[in-house]
Fold:
Amino acid sequence: MHRRQLLRATTALGVTGTLAGAAATSASAATSAVPSPARSAAVPADPGGPLRVHVVMFDGVEELDFAAPYEVFSAAGFFSQRPVEVRYVSASGARTVTAAYGTVVRGIRRWDPAEADVLVVPGGGYARRDSLGVWAELAAGTLPRALAAAVRPGLTLAAVCTGVMLLSGAGLTAGRPCTTHHRAKADLREQGGLVKDARVVDDGDLVTAGGITSGLELALWTVRRELGPDAALGLEAMMEYEARGTVWTADRTA
Structure:
């Protein structure tokens, strides 16, 4: 654990130094033309508190669906002056969860979306109606009800893969642009979602992504939106991963 944190910190410092060096070179070249350059408007101002990200957990959740966003958001703090706090939560209370391929996740925290800025809902188990996962959560009803009750100003609901179907079961995607795993798109459309053929769909307080690996794009896009493009670029360099696919965004000028 300590070696991994040291590697992240070293990589982050290296990337930050490279970006800072490039910025210093550009600023030096532009000094004669711009006497006192202002802070870039592309970087959101620090609102005075951490970006709080809660990743929703349940039995049968897909490993990459929850681990990829957790990794991205956890490392984002290396590239932003605004701190980032990430935690696993469960609508069933503090507990241990067994994921789709048998990974056991302990230390899951209590459910309190009032303490979150971003609530990430992974998927899993949608192809197996008789096993643990999304279908079992829909049948039980606890998580969909908790998601529906979580909605409030200032909270972004984000979902990866068939986690979007849990939002749909909560009545949160009807009439809204969204996407999900390709095998669930017909169901999402039938339930009233305005399905877009994009890897990530950003409709303001609702951000959804396609299947499994799209969780990387969802997290990187949300980091870019909340912490600025330099944070997202720094993460891509550290992770040796380049965001791909189309991001559909709502026209908020209409």
About this structure: The CA atoms of residues 179 and 185 lie 7 Å apart. The two ends are 48 Å apart (CA to CA).
